[in-house]
Each structure stands twice: as C-alpha cells, then as structure tokens.
Amino acid sequence: MVRHVLWRIDRNRFLAVLLALTAVAGPAIDVHAQQAEQPKRQQAKPRPPAAAKPAPTPAQPGPKQAAAAQAAKLDAAGPSQIGPPTIARFACLIDAQTGTVLLAKDAEKPMAPSSMAKMMTVYLLFEDLASGKLKMDTRFAVSERAYAITRGTHSSTMFLERTDSPSIGDLIQGIIVVSGNDASVAVAEGMAGSEETFAERMNKEARAIGLTGSVFKNSSGWPAEGQMVTARDLAVLAMRTIRDFPQFYHYYSQRDFAFNGKTQSNRNLDLKNVPGVDGLKTGHTEEGGFGQTTSAIRDGRRLILVVNGLGSMADRAQETARLIEWGFRESSNVTLLKAGDAVAEAPVWLGAQDKVSLVIPHAVMVTNTVGQTNQPRIVARFDGPIPAPIVKGAQIGTAVVTMPDGRVIEYPLQAGADVARASMISRMSTLVRHYLLGWAS
C-alpha cells in the first residue's frame, strides 16, 4: 500500500511534501428360499396369488450426481458480472461494513419486487415510530380494501377482519413475519390516508436514502404496472434499516406470529438453517419468481444478500445459504487504519512546531477476497502550510482511499495535536527568512 500526500502551497511559498509508506473424497452371498417337498400322495393345495411387488424406489442421486446437476444449473443460468455464478436471475451480495460488492448479477436491472417491497413500508413505519409520531399501541382500522386484498386469492395474510383494530405492534409482525398484504394496506391507509399517497412517500424516501432504480406503486409489492426495484437498491434498503433502526430490527428475525387464533411461520427458512441469519424478507409472484433479501452476521461482520427470479422456495433457501457461506468463506475484512492513526504530516506556518500530524478519526476497513493482491491507495489532501494556532481535532483535510474495486471513499483528516503560535521573535525571524529567500529567488 502506498500513501501519497498532496497539498497546495499558499502563494507558492513552499514546496510540496511527499509522504510514501510501503504497505502494504466380503464376498456377495446368494440366499435361496427352498420349499419343503410334499409327499407324493398328498394333493397339492392351490397356491395363493403372489403379492404384488412394490414399485422400486427411485435411486437418490449421490454427492457427485448432485454436484454435477448443480453445476449444470449454474452453467445454464449464465455468469455473474462480479463474483461466483448463481442460478438466481438477479443477485447482489455486499459487505455491510465496507460496502464492497462481492457478487453482482444484473444487480442494477429492474425486477419485480414482490413482497420485498414491504421492506420500504416497514422502513417508513420504523421512521414514524422512532420520531414519536406513532406508538406501538397506536391502532389502525381495517378498510374493505385491506380486508379484500387477501380474500379469494392465494395472497399472504395475517387474517385481519373488518371489525379488527390492530395495533402497530401487531401490524409490524403481520408484515415482516407472515408477509400480510392486508397488514401492509392497513398501515399505508393508516399512515397516509390512501395507498396511493403512501406510495408517493415511499418513492420520496427511496430517493433520499440512495435507492436510484426503484419505483413503488403500493405498500405490499402486489403486481402493478411500473413497479420495480433493483437488487442493489434492496441491499441498500436492508443496510439502512439495520443502521437507522437497530431498536426495531429484531422483528426481522422473528420466526412465527399468531393473530386471530392462527399461528404462521416466517417464510425465511434460512433463519433456522443458516448460522447468523437474522433477516430480512422473502417475496414471490408469478412475474418475479422467488426472491429473498437476507442479512447474516458472524463474528461482528455482516453480509447483505439479495436474490430474485428463482424457481421455487427450495431453490431460494438453498441458493441463499450457498452464497452466504461463500461470502464468509472467501472474503474477510481487514482494518487498514485504526481511529487515531496518523496518515500524514502537514507543515505549520508561524507555529511553535514546524509540523502537525494529520490523523483519521474513524477506522478504515477494507474487504479482501481470497487471492487478492491489490491494496488500497491512500492520498492525504490539505491546503498548506497550516497557520498556527491549531486546535487538536480541527478538520485539516481529507484522506481519499481508492479501493481495489475502484470505489473512492473520502474520510476527514484532523489535527493530531495542539500547535501554539511561535513566539514574537521566532515569528519575526521566520518572516525575515521567508522574505529574504523570496527576494533571493
């Protein structure tokens, strides 16, 4: 790793300072049943009809056959732009701490969100709870629209009745755990008056938190013309939910929910089958196929995975598990700089010290994949020399980190120490030398 320091000179009085650090798989026995020979004079008895032989059980494929079948499915599915192949039509796997994309397959292309759109409904619900606009015991009415959306269809439901007035606490579980479309409509109407108005708020919030390719038409993800999301956007939404509302995120790991005498299980099968999985949301429509947004945390490291366009619930659960395991196995996070580490030194003008260290207030972490050799490049940028006095912690410049995948991230640089002004005599001497050298040049 090579660190470069770039700074600009006030009035061209000083030369640029360059800082370079070199980082960084008995014999067989035949058994014959013999019938005892009958006496010759004894009349033979008719034999009972032979029992029908059961149909042979199809042989289960062995590990080699299963692996070959999986490889054939992956070949047929086509390659990913980043990372390993997947049978999902759309996929995005991101390290939540560094933002590194480990897997991308058409992650920026529009797709049907199905019930994964409910994540945005829940985000807005959490937002109003956090602000105090809503409380867990706030109750909403169940309109005919909310009641009718699940009747006579195979739609997911928390079994709301027209006479119910469910609490926000019930509706959160109804949306997250059992993917109730009725609960989503009740929330949209309760918060915004109508689902159309609520969808407008969904889209406004989506832009505010960085969802660039998504358009929401309703609160549930029910098929609607023009409604679309991207795998990348759903990953961002998952990360923002976890970061912005840690006090409410536990609902996404809840495995079952009972309401109106009916207990239903969470459709996210990976919650109980894959270590570390603690959310988020499944989805399925005829148009979009089977999809899932998943978060998993192990040893403090969190991965976010979005898959969509799969052919069955089993494929969804198995592919999610495979890709999560791949992500944790084939990559790791490394702390490049700890909070407080000095990145560079800047010259000081008329100070008691000639230089001041520039430190980074936050740790810089990078995600390395197995076999990766490229290291991040760090450039410190500031206007110099820095006039004294300087207060420790004052922002002096910026550390620009270029990641191996080409992403550029900027971090603030702060003064690592106080620097007082030099004495009057020292300042005069410095000024004299400065002007003499300037005249001599």
What does this structure look like?
With 441 residues, this protein is an alpha+beta fold. It folds into 2 domains: 122 residues, D-Ala-D-Ala carboxypeptidase, C-terminal domain (Peptidoglycan synthesis regulatory factor (PBP3), Domain 2); 235 residues, DD-peptidase/beta-lactamase superfamily (Beta-lactamase, 3-Layer(aba) Sandwich). The protein is 28% helix and 24% strand. It has 10 helices and 16 strands. A 7-stranded mixed sheet has the order 1-13-15-16-11-10-14, with no helix packed on it. A 5-stranded antiparallel sheet has the order 3-2-8-7-6, sandwiched between helices. A hairpin with a 5-residue loop joins strand 15 and strand 16. The longest helix has 18 residues. The chain is globular, with a radius of gyration of 32 Å. The N terminus is likely disordered.
